[in-house]
Amino acid sequence: MAADLFDLTGKVAVVTGGNSGIGLGFARGIAKQGGDLEIWARSAEKNAKAKAELEGYGARVIARQVDVSSEQAVTEAFDATMQDFGRLDCVIANSGAPPAMASVVDLSSEAWHELLGVNLHGAFYTLREGARRMVRQAEAGRPGGSLIFCGSLSMFHGVPGVGNYAASKGGMGALVRTMASELGRYGIRANTVAPGYIKTDLGGGQDSTQVDQFFAAKTPIPRPGEPSDLEGIAAYLASDASRFHSGDTIVIDGASLVYPPYAF
User: Fold this and answer.
1) How far apart are CA 127 and CA 14, in angstroms?
2) In whole angstroms, what is the distance from residue 218 CA to residue 263 CA?
3) 235: which of 29, 51, 107, 220 fits an S-S bond (Cβ 3.0–4.6 Å)?
4) Strands 188-195 and 249-252
5) Do residues 247 and 211 make contact, with C-beta atoms less than 8 angstroms apart?
6) Of 248, 91, 93, 64, whose CA–CA distance to 168 is shortest?
7) Is the pLDDT of residue 118 over 70?
């Protein structure tokens, strides 16, 4: 049963990349609080598995195969969402490609643009189209809505080898603050969630024990993060409890960002 403070009954959220990892963590948080969901991702098999799990929490769930790097695909998917649910309350732009690990001087233009096509442009299409529909709802007498971007600690750190990835996260972080400023008059808030190291299946099932231990040693809460650690922030930001919280970058990282490299 949904808790009163974060009750999402009757609300509809779209989560891109919502069929695994961090995105599925966001989606679980919303489903567990009574919200309905659309999860957008490219793998039909993983979509079906995530849909079945989320429905187990009592949510109404629609899974779509959507390539967020396509502006047309994003627009058509939102049109379908509005047709199916009749409303839109929360959009989480989580889809993203991992960096290829290359120095700036070796990073090809092709690799630069390929990653930004999903991580920057795709996130922009997603949040812009979500915002457009929320504005229409507000103009029709139903203000409000939550736009959420999944950032990373690369927004703050100068991490070697991930220049295009960091640029996409930092660029979208700036855009989210602009959206918060522009859309507040409609009751629409916009925030970024910046996770630290989260243990997911992106490694293709490979043993990540050494990586987990490395990050745990540099984190005051000495363990890797889990997708479940993102459930609470998703439920909060999607709910009316966050109705005055906008323009923020919320770090979920076990305090690793503030932990100095020279700490004993």
Assistant:
1) 10
2) 9
3) 29
4) parallel
5) no
6) 93
7) yes
Q: What residue has token string 């609470």?
A: 232
pLDDT at 143 over 70: yes
Residue 203 has pLDDT above 70, yes or no: no
CA-based R_g, the chain, Å: 18
Choosing from 125, 165, 197, 236, which is the catalytic residue? 165
Measured from the Cβ of residue 153, the count of other Cβ atoms closer than 10 Å reads: 17
Contact 76, 126 (CB under 8 A): no
In the chain, how many H helices and how many E strands? 8, 7
Quote the pLDDT of residue 2: 47
Buried residues in 69-79 as b, exposed as e (16+ CB within 10 A) = beeebbeebbe
Residue 57 falls in the annotated catalytic set:
no
* The three-state (H, E, C) secondary structure of 6-71, written as one string: CCCCCCEEEEECCCCHHHHHHHHHHHHCCCEEEEEECCHHHHHHHHHHHHCCCCCEEEEECCCCCH
Assign 1 a pLDDT band (cuts: 50, 70, 90). Answer: very low
d(Cα 89, Cα 10) in Å, to the nearest integer? 9
Q: Which domains can be identified in the chain, with CATH numbers?
A: 12-252 (3.40.50.720)
Residue with structure tokens 């996130």?
A: 123
Quick one: CA torsion of 146, 124, 255, 3, rounded to 10 degrees?
20
For the record, the structure tokens of 197 come out as 């190291």
Tokens 């929320």 label which residue?
Answer: 134
Q: Please tell me the total number of residues recorded for the chain in this structure.
A: 264
Q: Is 35 left (phi over 0), alpha (psi -120 to 50) or beta?
A: beta
Model confidence, pTM? 0.95
The mean pLDDT value of the chain amounts to 95
